[in-house]
Design goal:
about 280 residues, alpha/beta, Rossmann fold, five-stranded parallel beta sheet, globular, AAA+_ATPase, DNA_Rep/Repair_Clamp_Loader, AAA+ ATPase domain-containing protein, P-loop_NTPase
């Protein structure tokens, strides 16, 4: 079920019917507001005529996601081969690149070259939380579409449709802060709920913070996946944002530090401790 962004559904439907679609778009905005879901629903619309999440395989769509934390040049080359083939079931072959901020510089340049001379029947949709992590030359070649947060009542409606009791749906929808993906994770994702509990304990019990940080860093290193740290900080920021007036100063400091964390590859332990120690 596609949640929110009704005006965009109308606009993209009209662009298709008028045959004036661009060769490529960048869908950007906060995490979990529905950018990838919208891209997949639009691909489903192009192939099957229904602007909704696909319930099966889309033959004319290729979804690219990071592997081991990045999207490399080989994947970009595969995308080029995919787009070079003519569609059979749709007017367009659709390439969706999710978490495009994790494209390597080589891969970004490869996508840039495709966008400079796109196959006539191709459509590229780049999905990213921000524009800053993408090459300016790439962002200039694609039309930029901003996705804002979704209304709380629409998220609540989604949760009730999934069988969540009304009071719980209302609570979860409010805590989601306009991000339907976060609401769904809250009710369905065990790992997400584990992080929620971890964050609540971390905020309430300063004496346990050192142990929590050390455990998290060890788990992160064992998995060879830095995303656990990003997830943890994101959960903390979301929890503090439930009371933005009270936590405004802390949120501002965390936002600044979290941005700097993405620029560090070696001293990440120090960056994490600096960001979280004085909550």
């Amino acid at each position: 079920m596609l949640v929110g962004h009704k005006e965009k559904i109308k606009i993209f439907g009209e662009l298709f019917r008028s045959d004036v679609l661009s060769h490529g778009y960048i869908f950007f905005g906060e995490e979990q507001v529905g950018k990838k879901s919208f891209a997949l629903a639009f691909a489903n619309f192009l192939e099957k005529g229904k602007f909704e999440n696909p319930d099966g395989i889309l033959s004319e769509t290729k979804l690219i996601t990071p592997e081991e934390g990045s999207i490399g040049i080989d994947t970009a080359k595969e995308a080029k081969r995919f787009l070079s083939q003519k569609p059979i079931l749709s007017k367009r072959r659709v390439l969706i690149i999710d978490d495009a901020h994790k494209l390597t510089s080589q891969a970004q340049n490869a996508i840039l070259k495709i966008s400079e001379e796109p196959p006539q029947s191709s459509l590229i949709i780049v999905v990213s939380p921000t524009l800053d992590s993408l090459l300016p030359t790439l962002t200039s070649r694609l039309q930029r579409i901003y996705f804002p947060r979704v209304k709380t009542e629409e998220i609540e409606k989604l949760l009730r449709a999934r069988g969540v009791e009304s009071a719980e749906a209302s609570r979860v929808a409010k805590a989601a802060l306009g991000r339907p993906g976060r609401a769904i994770d809250t009710i369905e994702n065990d790992e997400f709920r584990r992080f929620n509990r971890l964050v609540k304990d971390f905020i309430k019990s300063p004496s346990s913070r050192k142990d929590v940080l050390q455990s998290l860093i060890k788990e992160n290193d064992d998995l060879k996946n830095r995303d656990l740290i990003d997830i943890f900080v994101s959960h903390i920021m979301a929890e503090l944002a439930l009371d933005p007036l009270k936590n405004n100063r802390t949120l501002s400091a965390l936002c600044d530090r979290f941005t700097k964390m993405s620029d560090f590859t070696t001293n990440r332990r120090l960056q994490l401790e600096t960001a979280l120690w004085n909550l």
